[in-house]
Every structure is written in structure tokens, then in C-alpha cells.
Amino acid sequence: METRLTLRPGQSGTKKLVQRYGERLVRVRYLCDQAGGRRLKTVELIVESVPWQPRPRHSRRRDDEIVAVRIGWAETDLRERARRLGGVWRPAQKLWELTWANAKRLGIADRVGQTDK
Fold first, then answer.
1. Cα–Cα–Cα angle for 98, 102, 105, nearest 5°?
2. Nearest CA among 116, 89, 91, 85 for reference residue 103
3. CB-based contact 87:111 (threshold 8 Å)
4. DSSP character at residue 60
5. Cα–Cα distance between 19 and 10 in angstroms, integer?
6. Is the torsion defined by CA of 73, 74, 75, 76 positive or negative?
7. CA 19 to CA 17: how far, in whole Å?
8. What is the tally of helices (H) and strands (E) in the chain?
């Protein structure tokens, strides 16, 4: 079976289902069964809603772990600060290597693992 169309409540093709299921309706899917020559319509419903508080997330990295970070050529101040903190420029990869703690200290922890640009 192949999903051909997924609709949110309120879109064309969901009005009768919104009347039937109301706020519980999450989405409507149209599936095609080419082998059986049928089109199926399915609904996703909310069946329970309970209060939930997520646990605080802890970093999976250790502060002494070496990470690769992209720092732009025009970011001269940031490059100099990374160098002063012991960062190493890797020209072949065009990335800086520094510890996770220093990446957080420089405010560029969100750039770790980003290789495009």
C-alpha cells in the first residue's frame, strides 16, 4: 500500500470527518492498494490526553570531547577566540576542532555537526 495524500482537519476532504470526530481528529490519510485495486481512507484520532512534564535533557557529550565546528571566514573575532581557547583549524575539512566546553563557551554549540554552508 502507498500513501497518496495526507490531510489536516479542515482541509477539503475532511469536513465530514471533522463533524464526526471533532477535536480528536489529527489527520486523514488516503492509501492506495494497487494489488487489490482499492483506495482506503484512514483517520488518526486522539484517544487520550493526560498531563505530561518532560524530563530535563542532559547533554550526551562530555565537556572534554573534541567536536568539529564551522566558523565562517568573515567571523575573524570568533576564529581568534577559538584559537586562543586551543581550537585547531583543519584546512582539508574547513572545520575547527575544539572541546565541547569551549564550543559552549563561545556560543557556537549549535553549529557542532553542521557540515553544510
1. 150
2. 85
3. no
4. S
5. 10
6. positive
7. 5
8. 3, 6
pLDDT in tens, 77-101: 999 999 999 999 999 999 999 999 9
Q: Is pTM beyond 0.85 here? A: no
Find out whether 61 and 67 touch, Cβ atoms under 8 Å: yes
**Using only C-alpha atoms, what is the Rg of the chain?**
25
pLDDT by residue (tens digit) across 24-62? 999 999 999 888 899 999 999 999 999 999 888 877 888
DSSP string, 63-84: TT-EEEE---TT-HHHHHHHHH
CA angle 44, 26, 36 (to 5 degrees): 35
CB atoms closer than 10 angstroms to residue 107: 10
Q: Under a CB-based contact definition with an 8 Å cutoff, are residues 96 and 89 in contact? A: yes
Q: Is the distance from CB of 26 to CB of 7 less than 8 angstroms?
A: no
